Amino acid sequence: MAQIFHRSSNSLAKVSIAAALLTVGGIIWAAYRLNAGSFTTLVEVARDQPVPFSHKHHVADDGIDCRYCHTSVETSAVAGIPPTETCMTCHSQLWTNAEMLEPVRTSFQTGKSLEWTRVHDLPDFVYFNHSIHVNKGIGCSTCHGRVDKMPLMFKVNTLYMQWCVECHREPEKYVRPRDQVFNIAYEPPDDQMDLGQRLVAEYKIQKLTDCVTCHR
Q1: Which residues have a Cβ under 8 Å from the Cβ of 105 and sit 6 or more positions away?
Q2: Which of 10, 59, 105, 180 meets the CB 3.0–4.6 Å disulfide criterion with 148?
């Protein structure tokens, strides 16, 4: 019986299988990189805002405490976006004619709030409470980074579930003394693990990793 397929068919089949596997692998790798890249996560991407507010200027240069603007961060689930009146406590006297602050003055005069673009935007199906984290010794910079070095605000972490769970599983790596929570420049000491374990016990921190903790 005559041979139906050319002897090169075996090699062609092997090459085809290898090419298919490489293609599938490449698609999976590309999807992973896209999911982890700044295009999707918006990590280190400064968002457009109605006013180019500089945390660097207000925090590092002027020494303004986080709680002056984010008044509810210690007592509420949300840190709070400061009303225009908070801005005007200073800017009714400082930079009163600055062009970049015209939206602030207009907002104050009309009573219409500025429409800020949320930088740290969690999905609606995730429950997060700022106050419990702050009162358990999780510092602002742990999640938000060195905002005192940001002329324009951007995320430094993805806020993906994996990132949250890492802290929930091992809070001793991240917890700090309560009096250092609002110290943006705080650096963990060399004995962080020993300190963290003591603080976890002192603050009665539970390693909450059940789904219902965040998905209610």
Answers
A1: 88, 91
A2: 59
